[in-house]
Amino acid sequence: MDSLKPIKEGTAEVLVPRAFEWWTFLALATDPASQFEHLFFVSKLSPESRVVILDAGLLSEAIHLLKDKPLVIVILWDGYQSYRDKKALLIQAAQLARKVELRFVGTPTAGEIDSVFRWRLLFTQQPETYNSETIFSAGLSKVSFSRPLAKTVLSQRTKLMSAKVIVQLIQAKKVHEYLRSTYVFCGHSGLAQLEKYSAHYGVDRGEMPKDTAGSVFESELVSHWMGAVHGKKGYWANQVVIRALLRFIALRTLATQIGNDLFLNFYPEPNINAYQAGALFKRHVFLDFGGSQGDESVYPRAADLLLLKRKVIRFDLRTPTTDLWNVRHNDQNSVEGFLRGYRDFVISTLDHGGAFLS
Length: 358
Hints:
13 helices, disordered N terminus, single chain, globular
């Protein structure tokens, strides 16, 4: 039982879903400002714990244990969306604990976060800290788990993930695709974010493409969405929607231009975790469009790529974002002009190697 393990001074209890244990460990192990001597990953919080690191999604079940805690750190994986969803519980936690700090994946606007909270990004933006030798020695020495073998599984994660991905490639009949390709992208194509926010913006889902293949009139898609975004100037989700739209168009452009040279695996297909499979994709170049929630350089998948020293082309979306904002959505020439310029930018970035993570 978790409660049987004594809580040592300098120990933080960590309560996150199992699916997020790795990234939580990676973020905490590379934090240059960490004040914790030990991290104890638990399946439930102990009443005796003093410092708690907690997933925002688990706040409701743990809120009654936060009273008088000297420090509670809450992780918000979906950026400002998580903050909006959990704001009432976060305020309650701040009234119970002596201090509550927030750690974001994604970059919120400072003015949108209640002044009662201190907050910062979850992942350090210093690439040099993602050193596998340090993390898997000094980092792991400070970690324990309430579950048997969990620490062993964590330490062997890249090997276990590699074995899983080999099986997935065989089952999905993607071995040939893996062998012939040079570039790789696995994850959200951008459509999931657009579909998620379509009701917020009044965009008919019938106007949405089903995938990145097939007949898609990108000019109509841009017109629909930018008309909706311009109608909600200052709305917090605008940056998420624009980043999703840019990602979708870029991936369609790349799939069309380089075809078989690109290994793609899109959500919601079974997740082929190329980013953590240490024995595979060594000769591939990973394509990175940044996180879906913000423009920080290091987010969970970027941290994995740094840790494994992968070759990465980063598409800098800052200028395309400005260009897309300036599109006159009801002017076909303006829309088509943006699309031509953006497609050229995508191919040029690929040809010139982009900005490499290092």
